[in-house]
Amino acid sequence: MLEFTYLFKEQVFGNSQLGIFRKYGTTCQLSDFAKLLGGFISSSKYNIEGETKQDNTGYWWLITPYNNNACTVDEDGNSSWNDVDGRSGGARPALPYSVIQNISSNVVRGASGVLEVEYGEYPQTVVDNNLSYQLDYLFNVGNLKLTGKKYTADSVNNYSTPFKAREFKEYEYNGDKYIRFVADWKNNGENLSNGEKIKEGSTYWIKVEPIKWLVDLEEDIAVAKQILFSGVQFKNECDYQGNFVDTNLKWFTDNFFAKEIIPSKSLGNDKENQVINLEKYNPYNLDFRKVSEEEIIRGAIESDVAVYLHGRSSEGKSSRIKQLDPDCEIVYLVSASIDSINGKSVYNQDSGEMIDIPPTWYQNLVRKCEKEPDKIHIVFFDELANADRSIRKSIFNVVLDKEVNGKWKLPSNARIAAAGNEMEDSSVAEDLPEPLFNRFAHVYIHTPVEDWLTWAMTDNSSYQRLDYENKKRKYKIHPAIYSFILCRGENALRSKYDGKKPNADPRKWELASKILEITNQPEMIRALIGNEITADFVSFCTQKVITIDAVLNNNYTNADLEMDYSKKAATVMGLANVELENLELVRNFTVKLGPAFCAQFDNLWAHGDLERLEQIAFLQEKDNEKGGAKK
C-alpha cells in the first residue's frame, strides 16, 4: 500500500511553487462524488486552464498550519485557511511520482502542457439518466453484480460528532464499475457535472474511473487532478500545529482511500450479453427518476387526481398549492356550514318556486375557470381532518363525482386539493373515513431546515412593505433569525408543542421576523416561540463579534478571527447591515472567515432584493476578473 500525503502552502504559492501549478493553475474541480459528500461548491463556474470543460470548483486542504487551523486553496485558487474541524474541505492527495511511475498508465501531455498519468481508480462522475435507469432497474431486480469491493466516506456533517463510516458497494455492468449513492441533504440543490441538481433522497450512480494525476518530474510529485473526496474532517479539534500524521485526514487517507483505490478484479462478464435491451426491460419508456413531494403534487393536479397534503400546521401546505395556482379558491372547512359547502334552496315569492343557489366557493371557481379556460384552477379544502363529519361527507361527494350537491359539475379545468393537520397536532382532528381517504393521492409534508433557509432567501418582491412611523418591513425573514436557524438547525426551527406554552415552528418564525423587524426587540418574540429558544436567540445575537466599525478601521487581529462556527455566523449577521458604500470592503473581510461565511454574507446582505443581488453579482464578477478576493 502506498503512503499518500498532501501539499504544503509553499508548494502551491510563492517562489517554491511547483511547475504544475504555474502551468495548470491552482483552482480545482470537484468530482461528483466529492460534491455528493458535502464538499464546498463555488457559486460560479471557472475555466480550468488548458481544459475545455467547465465545472464548479471547491477549496482543498494543505498541510501548512495557520492559527490552530490549516491553510487551504480556495475556490478561486487563492491562498486561504479554514477551520480544521469543518467537513466541507476537499482532498487532493499527492505522492512521489517515482513510486507509481512503473505501474501508472496512459501517460500523456495535457492541453496545459502538464504531464498526466493514471493510477488507481475511485468513484468520480455521475452517469447520464438513461444509464442510471438501466442500473436502477438491474439493482431493483437483483441482477446487478457486486465486485466485492466497497468505498468508504464519513456520514457526519457537523463539527462535534466523530467519524462514522458510510460504505458504498461497487457493482459491475458492461465491464465498467459503479456505486449507488442516495443523496442526503448535503449540497441539496447544487449542480452535478451533467447539470442535474442534487436532490435529497434521489439516487445517483457514480462511475468508478481511473484517477488522473498531474506530474511534476523535477520535484518527483504527482497530485490528484480533481478533488476526489470531501466530508472528512482535517482534524476534529482546532489545535493543529503542523503534526499532520496525527490528523483525521491522514488517518482516513491511510486506512481507507489508499486501500480502496486499488482496482478490483473484473468479473469477466461477456459484455455483449450484459447489454440491456431497453424494449425488453423498459418497454413503456418510463421515467424512473426519484421525485420530490412538490413534483408529486404537481403530477396529481395535472392528472386530475385529488391530492391530500398531510403535515403539521406550520409546514406550508397551502403555500405549496398556491405555487401551482396563486389564485386558488381556498375553503376553510373548520368554520364551514353545510350550506356554504353544498349551496342552498330559497323560496322565490314571485314564481312560488324553490331556487337552488350554488355555494360561493363554487361560483368563484367557475368564474375563474371560465375566464381562463386554458389554465388549471384549484379548489383547496383546508383542514379537512378537523371538519365536522357532515362536512366531510359533502366533500366526499365533490371528490367522488366532481360535482356539488349532485347538481353542479366542476369545470373541466378545475382540480381538487385538500389538507389536514396530523392527529397529534390537533385535539379535534380525526382520521379520514376509508372511502374518503382512498379518493386522494397522499403527500406527507415536512420542510427540512435547508429548504426553509432557501425559501427565506428567495425574492421577497411579492411581500407587502409596511411604512408607518418610518418603519419598513424589508425582509421575508430577518437576517438575525436566518443566521440563528442556520447555526442551530432543526432544534431551533421546531420545538415540541405541549399545549401549555409557545413553541417554535416555521410559521412562528415568520411571525417572529415581522415583530423583530418592526420592534427591533428580541424579547418580544418569546410570545411566539417561548422563553427557552428566545433566550438562546438573545445569547446568539449578543456574542462577541467583529463589528462593521472594526472591519472598516482594521481594528482586529488574527487571534480575533479564531472563532467557532456560531460566532462566525453571528459576525456575518452583524456585518450584513453594512451600507452599500462599504460593501466591498466588508465583503472582502468575510472571505477570511471561510468560503461558506462569505456566501452567507452575500445571502444576508442581498436577502432576495433584486438590486442588491445585482450588486453582489457585480462584486463576484469583479473577484473573478482579479483572480478572486484575497483571503
Short synopsis of the structure:
The chain is α+β, with helices and mostly antiparallel strands and 631 residues long. The strands form eight sheets. Strands 7, 8, 9, 10, 11, 12, 13 and 14 form an eight-stranded antiparallel beta sheet that branches.
Secondary structure topology:
Layout: H1 9-12, H2 19-24, H3 32-36, E1 45-47, E2 54-56, E3 60-66, E4 69-73, E5 79-82, E6 90-91, E7 94-95, E8 105-109, E9 115-126, H4 129-140, E10 145-154, E11 165-173, E12 176-182, E13 203-216, E14 221-224, E15 229-230, H5 248-260, H6 271-274, H7 278-281, H8 293-302, E16 307-310, H9 317-324, E17 329-332, H10 338-342, E18 344-348, E19 353-357, H11 360-371, E20 377-382, H12 389-401, E21 403-404, E22 408-409, E23 414-420, H13 434-437, E24 441-444, H14 449-456, E25 467-468, E26 471-472, H15 479-488, H16 490-493, H17 506-519, H18 526-529, H19 531-541, H20 548-552, H21 565-575, H22 583-590, H23 595-606, H24 610-626
Parallel strand pairs: 16-23, 16-24, 17-20, 20-23
Antiparallel strand pairs: 1-2, 3-4, 4-5, 6-15, 7-14, 8-9, 9-13, 10-11, 11-12, 12-13, 13-14, 18-19, 21-22, 25-26
Helix pairs in contact: 15-21, 21-23, 22-23, 23-24
